[in-house]
Amino acid sequence: MGVLLYEFIAGYPPYYDDTPFRIYEKILAGRLKFPNWFDARARDLVKGLLQTDHTKRLGTLKNGVADIKSHPYFHGANWDKLYSRYYPSPIPVKVRSPNDTSNFEKYP
Length: 108
Hints:
Elements: H1 2-10, H2 20-29, H3 40-49, H4 65-69, H5 79-83
Helix pairs in contact: 1-3
């Protein structure tokens, strides 16, 4: 989740290198570099989610996902309304059937 959040905000992944092995090394080292403009609350959330020590990682502690939901980054989020699908989709999508894949790009 932390990797996705970082990439959604920054536009590129938090760990990158030319080879998969070097990417793994960076992940294991746990050192993150953030752009200067990265929101402080988002930075704190990403750091918590990407904590290499699983005993300190946000979401794996005693309160579980409640720690993530109550993080200041999500201040003002109404989780009940989100779960009940109260909010309309920002990108309306027409789906003709449960198997409809017409909204996805075609890959070889």
